Amino acid sequence: MMTDDRMAGGLDGRGHPEREAGRLSRRSFLAGSALGIGALSLGGCGTTDTLLMAEAAKTYGPMPNEKFPIPAVDVSKVNPKYYRRTVQYASSEAPGTIVVDPANYYVYRIEGDGTATRYGANVGRQGFLWNGDAYVGRKSEWATWTPPKEMIRRQPEAAKYARGMPGGLDNPLGARTLHLYQNGAYTLYTIYASSDAESIGTGITSGCVGLLSQDMIHLYARTPVKTKVVVLPA
């Protein structure tokens, strides 16, 4: 669990991370499709990197049918090792379990056949990392975000959202949110959707975990309430 400082300083009432200071913007608030894809080739018709980028462009393409249409990710801003893919992953956890590996900026969904779906992530910055077991207590789509009073004191420009910021592309909670609980109590930590491609593979949050919107929607659809979440030590 987190310290009182974490609860007061870096998270909204719905568990969203925010950065310590700066202008009022999504970035300041936030602070491979198949196994072996990297080995694909076309017999001289393209390089491995070209194929990887082309496949990623499909995976992270626009989602026009969302309530708020989601634009394509600029995959050139994401290290290819963080693209969604299926990987070999030995685990004793039940299929469907989510494993967060903050040391390596990955989130895994256990598939139960010796593999896992792996997503690149952003994680907590130094001083806000945590580990332990939790579970998905509730889920939300395009949720309203309300800044905590402590944040408003530090960033007065956030006061205009004191009664809540409606869901949308600029909302810090993003398109989907998994709210993490322990022993029946909300931890204030979440796994949320981020549109900030450059944040993937970095530690910028107050303990929450962010996936690219396309990845978060993919994970969210496969994650029922009560799903176990294991956060490994960093």
TrEMBL record:
It holds the Pfam family YkuD. The keyword Glycosyltransferase applies. Pathway: Cell wall biogenesis; peptidoglycan biosynthesis. Residues 96-232 form the L,D-TPase catalytic domain. Residues 1-23 are annotated as: Disordered. InterPro entries: LD-transpeptidase, LD_TPept_cat_dom, TAT_signal, TAT_signal_bac_arc, Transpep_catalytic_dom. Keywords: Cell shape, Cell wall biogenesis/degradation, Glycosyltransferase, Hydrolase, Peptidoglycan synthesis, Transferase. The keyword Hydrolase applies. PANTHER family: L,D-TRANSPEPTIDASE (PTHR30582), L,D-TRANSPEPTIDASE ERFK_SRFK-RELATED (PTHR30582:SF24). Belongs to the YkuD family. This is L,D-TPase catalytic domain-containing protein.
